[in-house]
Amino acid sequence: MPVTEQNAMWFRIASAIFYGISSFLITVVNKTVLTTYKFPSFQILGIGQMIATIVILYVAKKINYIDFPNLDLSTIVKIFPLPLIYIGNMVFGLGGTKQLSLPMFTALRRFSILMTMAAEYYMLGVKPKTSVQLSVYIMVFGAMIAAFDDLAFNLQGYIFIFLNDIFTAANGVYTKKKLNSKELGKYGLMYYNSLIMIIPSTLIAWWTGDIDKIMEYDNWTNFFFICQFILSCIMGFVLLYSVLLCTHYNSALTTTIIGCLKNITVTYLGMVVGGDYVFSWLNFAGLNLSVSGSLIYTWVTFMPKDNVAPKYSPLISSPTKVEVI
């Protein structure tokens, strides 16, 4: 069936909603595991998410439900540097989740949008519309105001989240390039990202003593914790899959902003979940300004463009009648 402008828009919106829901759920579950249950290692939680991705995709390939190329020496060359970006994005993202309150975590994550916008311009030659740029600047400015009066300031958490922003921007742009090359496909990217990095990630966890910490952890007999831990691992796979779909049908910038847009709910929910948010009026005003920028971006991105001539977007892997955003 030919891809029409209407069909393309439906795929764009559906993949964005799927990613937004997945991102929201894993953020809340990770926060519960790391903060409420005080799980001692975000690295081990990340390894669990990698293992879940490997197992699910391996079984799906064995039963011929999906297909991707077999492992050979050229695979590492084809996928590089995505595994390094993937592990950095995951580790620093989980670390930031543990160290910061959810409202500040979501606000500071919006700096990744500005970084992605710059990376798309220099690496993919895509320049967002003026309205898109303005909405991004509003989000970032609001996040800066909130950070200025963060009464629960945590330097390590801030460092982690800014590193996470850098890796998120790089991951979005490089994922788009790898998807467009079609060498490994979306399932191959997911599988080999996790497979290549699981051994070095485990060695790092052993070297830092995290494996010993989880061996002494008390909640392994807690049924509710076990359910949350397993759900977090499975949601790691679901999130990665939703990121690839959203990046495929949209731009890397749109994927990044949808991830921050779902944080509207996380921002307000996080004021009562986790118990580590400290209220102040200036901080609260900055958070709301940043949220307003997210809403403006959603409007200018997905609103109908009746009087605009369609043109081919370099961010979509097949020629479709979709305007560059």
Your description of this structure?
Helix content is 74%, strand content 0%. The protein has helices at 5-36, 42-62, 73-79, 82-99, 102-108, 111-124, 130-148, 155-181, 185-207, 210-215, 223-249, 252-261, 263-269, 281-302. The chain has 14 helices and no strands. Residues 306-325 have low confidence and may be disordered. α4 packs across α9. The radius of gyration is 20 Å and the shape is globular. The chain is mainly α and 325 residues long.
Summed up:
It is built from 14 helices and no strands.
Helix residue percentage: over 70%
Unreliable spans? 306-325
Rg measurement, Å = 20 Å
Mean pLDDT over all positions: 77
- Helix tally equals 14
How widely separated are the two ends? 25 Å
What oligomeric state is this? single chain
Record field, number of beta strands: 0
| N-to-C series of helices and strands | HHHHHHHHHHHHHH
Strand content: under 5%
Largest sheet, described in full? none
- Label the overall shape: globular
| Helix-strand category | mainly alpha
